[in-house]
Structure formats: C-alpha cells, structure tokens
Specification:
Number of strands: 5
Number of helices: 2
Largest sheet: 3 strands, antiparallel
Helix content: 25-40%
Oligomer: single chain
Radius of gyration: 14 Å
Mean pLDDT: 87
C-alpha cells in the first residue's frame, strides 16, 4: 500500500498493484484497474517513486529485473 493525499488534505492508502495509470493534467489523477479515479496532491513522479519503492520492498522489482536479464 502507498499513501497519497486527497485534495482536502486527508490521507488515503492505495494498493499499488491496483494502479493502472497516473496522469498530470495539471492535477494528478490516479486511475485504478477498477475504473475508480482519485485526484491527489502528489506529483506523478512521486506516485511512481512510491510504487517502485513498494515493489522493491515486496520483491517484485528484483524479480522483474531478473526476468528482463534472462530474456536478453
């Protein structure tokens, strides 16, 4: 789970594995695979960094790198 801040300043927690897209227009929209969209205060690069950190913590990032290395 990653923490994000809603426009009203409250904190929300999102399942990083359920995030489909993150876009800035200029507000940052996070779209989940369920179709639900949230507007958050964080920049898209911050959300992506949090997702990558979460993936590293649970070991998905390392597994992805190993797969990429074996395919080359």
């Amino acid at each position: 789970m990653i923490s994000v801040t809603r426009l009203n300043g409250t904190q929300a927690w999102l399942n990083a594995m359920m995030i489909e897209t993150v876009e800035e227009t200029p507000d940052t929209y996070v779209t989940l695979v369920t179709g639900k969209r949230m507007i958050v205060l964080e920049k898209a690069t911050d959300i992506i960094a949090k997702v990558n950190e979460y993936y590293s913590e649970i070991g998905i990032h390392a597994a992805t790198i190993k797969v990429q290395q074996t395919e080359e």
